[in-house]
Design brief:
heterodimer; A: 113 residues; mainly beta; seven-stranded mixed sheet; four-stranded antiparallel sheet; globular; B: 112 residues; six-stranded mixed sheet; 0% helix
């Protein structure tokens, strides 16, 4: 089945130690998104790629960066995780723009010690 | 600060109709309103999408007034498996910039 895959499902890192989260998709969608979701809160868009065009949200901290080496893969890099970065990180895709249906992965839960 | 607002929680019984409203005063023009369902430890899942008036699919209806400053998700005859958090998703205009924004979310609890 076509899907959005996130690895790992659970990630533990230390305060200040860089970490990378991975997302892959078999849907061949043009757009890929990264969201941060803290406990009991709504997902918050960090950035998205429309093909190779990177779009950063105005309030996304510089500590968060992303790479999309090809259509299928997208990575979220957290350069120096703080305790406040502990959250669920959701990857999503859509065929074209964000007004299209988004397909979400299961998420990676990040713990910062 | 532009934002979307939903009731924090709702309770219902099996077989009842549930209506969840989202307020989005600063919605961008020419953009769709989308609703998602989220179960614990899962990513959100698409329910329905619309631009204006009424849209219906096999699981829900979406009502959008002419001014598009709110939208109402209607779930007919809910079951226990509909217990989840429901979010609206819209583009808001915030200081001249379009921002894709999830609503605050409504936790629906369906009782037998």
């Amino acid at each position: 089945d076509a899907m959005v895959i996130q690895n790992p499902r659970y990630q533990v890192t230390q305060f200040g130690k860089p970490v990378t989260l991975s997302c892959s998709q078999t849907l061949n969608h043009n757009v890929m998104y990264w969201y941060q979701q803290k406990s009991s809160q709504a997902p918050k868009l960090l950035f998205h790629y429309y093909d190779k065009d990177f779009n950063n949200e105005a309030d996304t901290p510089d500590n968060f960066q992303s790479r999309r080496p090809n259509t299928s893969f997208c990575f979220l890099d957290i350069r120096s995780p703080g305790l406040g970065d502990a959250a669920m990180y959701l990857c999503a895709t859509s065929r074209t723009g964000p007004y299209n249906e988004q397909f979400f992965g299961p998420g990676t839960r990040l713990t910062v010690l | 600060l532009a934002k979307t607002t939903q009731p924090i929680s709702m309770d219902s019984y099996e077989g009842q109709e549930v209506n969840i409203t989202c307020s989005h005063n600063n919605i961008a023009t020419n953009d769709y309103i989308t609703w998602y369902q989220q179960f614990p430890s899962q990513g959100p899942r698409f329910i329905i999408q619309g631009y204006k008036t009424k849209v219906t699919n096999e699981v829900a209806s979406l009502f959008i007034p002419a001014d598009r400053k709110s939208s109402t998700l209607s779930l007919p005859r809910v079951s226990l498996s509909d217990t989840a958090v429901y979010y609206c998703l819209v583009h808001l205009m915030d200081t001249g910039r379009r921002a894709l924004t999830f609503g605050s979310g409504t936790r629906l609890q369906v009782q037998p």
